[in-house]
Amino acid sequence: MNLSSTEQALEAILQTFTDTNFVLTPGGVILDYKANVSSFSHIFPDSIRDKRITDVFPARLAEQLRDALRQVEQTGNVVPLEYVLPVLDQEYWFDARLIPVSDSKIMMIARDITECRETKLKMERQVLQLSILRSIDLAIASGLDLNLLLSMLLDRVMTLMHVDAATILLLNPRTNLLEYAAGKGFRGNILQHTRLKLGEGGAGRVALEREMLQIADLRKDRMEFDRSPLFVEENFVTYWGVPLLAKGRVLGVLEMFQRSPLKPDKDLQDFFVMVAGQAAIAIDSAMMFSELQRSNAELSLAYDATIEGLSRALDLRDKETKEHTARVTSITVKLATRLGIKQSDLIHVRRGAILHDIGKVAIPDQILFKPGPLAKDEWDIMRKHPMIAVELLSPVNYLEPALEIPHWHHEKWNGTGYPDGLGQEDIPFSARLFALADVYDALISKRPYRSAWSKWDAVQYIESQSGIHFDPRIVPEFLDLINTNHY
């Protein structure tokens, strides 16, 4: 088959399977051109024949074509090329192949893939949209910290809308002002001191009217952003603002800024509004969670204040009790931490230690402060103070987990303690810990009926009572703690 018949065969193929085709020289001169789709015939009229590609195509595309032609000439192989051709206000995408025909001719066949590419981009955008909605749903479910949530939301919005910067202003219910809460993409801290009344500025209008606002050219409408004299240096061109609405309330405004014209299609605008709605739900959830945490913290402080008040009731009778309580509480909490008690349980250990002798408020003074040994009947009364503590504290629900120490801190490992004669692991763990701290501190403290023991004597006693009074597995840890912390 001669060259002429080869070209005829190629042309028949091109007419069937391609949208445009060119015959080019290796140097980039257009020898021939045909478009099989009538809508493309106006793009390249017949007058382009014998012209150089640099005279016909945009500079960037012409450079791509020159590179591809050089590859064909050097390798003799078919070279693939994907390129975009801007025409008026539209871009056309082509998938092309450059095929060597002879030493002086290279055929470029191109298929219009604009619709396929748009479909692909639309699918990718939909996947991204689903990912964004999923991440917001997860944030709602996880109770994410508000600051982390706002940062995540801005990241997602900027990725979705391809904008240069974004902010979130939240409505302060106490002042009824929109205040800066988070921002990304700015060159400076231009908007961080924003405080807008409803109706004031772009964001104020969005919040007041509860509708999306677009400002196409901020260079002509700077008064919307006179909140910062440095705003002009950001060179923003386009503004979008959308209200953050949840449960019928305005929580704030999401703002976007672009340094070039921004014209998202209607589908993207609608999705942006949907994202703003989900973001508002997430923000509302995070704010409620934060408020709940604050309330819980305040409630916990109130609980501790109540406990301290109960403990002070005993302090009013015995000044030594306060110092003893502080010391044994400190030792017990450190020992509990050392032995791996969970952080969430330490608060109950601490409360139980503070209240360990609260039952003594009902013990008569003549017994509680007796300078000498107690008689049997007096001991019988004294030994009632753990049960008195249970009777006093059990009606308070939040103190129930802390009752182990007041109830059983006088039990002994060998089962000879009181009030219930529990032994070994039947004694709650926290009570076993506390018993060591309580006895040790009592021994080294002066009492009305005896002098304080030396630390050495107290340590020797603790060791001698391992497996009798105290849990033998805890004693070594306790003694190491005492020596390490110089108690």
| Main sheet characteristics | 6 strands, antiparallel
> How many runs of DSSP E, i.e. beta strands?
11
Query: Could you report the average pLDDT, rounded to the nearest whole number?
Result: 82
Assess the beta-strand content as a share of residues: 15-25%
Quick summary:
With 487 residues, this protein is an alpha+beta fold. The chain is built from 16 helices and 11 strands. A hairpin with a 5-residue loop joins strand 1 (20-24) and strand 2 (30-35).
Topology (SSEs and partners):
Elements: H1 3-17, E1 20-24, E2 30-35, H2 53-56, H3 59-75, E3 79-87, E4 90-100, E5 106-112, H4 114-142, H5 146-161, E6 165-172, E7 177-184, E8 195-197, H6 201-209, E9 213-215, E10 238-246, E11 249-258, H7 266-315, H8 319-338, H9 343-354, H10 365-368, H11 376-382, H12 385-393, H13 404-408, H14 429-443, H15 455-464, H16 475-485
Helix pairs in contact: 4-5, 4-7, 5-7, 7-8, 8-9, 8-14, 8-16, 14-15
Describe the structure.
This protein is an alpha+beta fold and 487 residues long. Helix content is 48%, strand content 16%. The chain has 16 helices and 11 strands. The protein has helices at 3-17, 53-56, 59-75, 114-142, 146-161, 201-209, 266-315, 319-338, 343-354, 365-368, 376-382, 385-393, 404-408, 429-443, 455-464, 475-485; strands at residues 20-24, 30-35, 79-87, 90-100, 106-112, 165-172, 177-184, 195-197, 213-215, 238-246, 249-258. It has a 6-stranded antiparallel sheet. Strand 1 (20-24) and strand 2 (30-35) form a beta hairpin. Helix 8 runs antiparallel to helix 9 and helix 8 (319-338) crosses helix 16 (475-485). The longest helix is centred in the middle third of the chain and has 50 residues, at 266-315. The protein is elongated and about 125 Å long. The termini are far apart.
